Amino acid sequence: MKKNVIGMLAVVSMSALTLSACGGGDSEKKASSGSGNELTAVVVKHSLTKKNKDMEWLTKLEKDLDVKIKWEEVSADWDQKKSPMLASGDVPDLIIGHNIVADTEFAKFPGLFADFNDYMDKLPNVQKMFEEKPQTEAISTQLDGKILGLPKYQRFWPISASRQYINQEWLDNVGMEAPTTWDELYAVLLAFKEQDANGNGDANDEIPMDWSPVGTGGFGYFQPMQLLASTGIVPSGGGNQGYFAEDGVVKSFFTDERYKETVEFLNKCWKAGLINSKAFSQDYSAYQSTGRGDGDDAKVGFTWGWEASDRFGTKIADQYTSLAPLAQKAGMTPTWSYEWDLNYAPNCVVMSANTKNKDKALEFINALYDPEIGLQELFGSIGPNIEKDGDKYTILPPADENVDPGTWKWTST
Fold this sequence. Notes:
Elements: E1 4-5, E2 38-44, H1 56-65, E3 68-74, H2 78-88, E4 94-96, H3 103-108, H4 124-132, H5 134-140, E5 150-153, E6 163-167, H6 168-173, H7 182-194, E7 207-210, E8 243-246, E9 249-252, H8 257-271, H9 284-291, E10 300-305, H10 308-316, E11 320-322, E12 344-351, H11 358-368, H12 371-379, E13 386-389, E14 392-395, H13 405-412
Parallel strand pairs: 2-3, 2-4, 7-10
Antiparallel strand pairs: 1-14, 4-12, 5-12, 6-10, 6-11, 8-9, 13-14
Helix pairs in contact: 4-5
């Protein structure tokens, strides 16, 4: 539960691990600020993450820098809010989050955001990050050499982004082995549905398969396109917009017969009632809540997640095991990789080209990349979340023993 952290490089991780906007959120529109020490900013974050005003590290930082930031905290429908904002050209001074403005949008709306190359002398922490981790500069640089979005780099994070899990207790209860193929998975899911797999006397409360909500921008982590790997396609970042590389050629799986076969298998499962009926409509918090069951009773048999205690909570996580890659058919060898380095992400901070208070905005941005601030962006504030002793930092366990460390982190900061 405790990790000693010394000399951490800066991170920008104010948005949730997931990668999906979910829940409620403010929607008031912000324009670039005027004069003095005021800035406007949008941050896209998880719906369960506490308000910015309650984050000790952030309120202290604003006070130390003598900056007043008018925050808009968005926890839902960012894509729908972002499009009209960019089209109008009326953007806040800062937008912060995980790949918050995509490279394609930089190309579509030229001149809307500042080129950080022009201000590197005011961003020494960013310069140091670029020097020590040149990957961060590479993923930030556009084809024309501009740097319109600054990245994040976060140490101490697993590189495994999306694992598939199966409830081992359910397997034992229905007398079956862990599946190795799609046909075996189908048979297991059918048994989960029909045989009161969780053993609570109710044969109708099991959800054989579940996945995270699919957004409008493409597929993502913890979603069924992971099954493409069973066919020999290795999806990048959960699938995204369909691009993958095979034998040195970039392809789209949407035009590939193997994608059709994957959808056909999922359709077979759907028709048999093996998939959560809310899989296409639930938000991320509902997905997480369902996965954590009801007390000691698990609700989900087969699903995808990042880490067991994060996906299932502390009470039932030990019921689950990480399932080996499935083959589409017996005799096939899946081409699979769980690896997707979550320690890096592009476009986590952008600045309006029309920001009047550029010096103050740049001072704040540079502070976000300070090692000690970065540590608090990732794990929570010094005090409740982190213990500091000189140059040694200890990440504290959750204050509530019923909360897993992942939830403790992303609800705190």
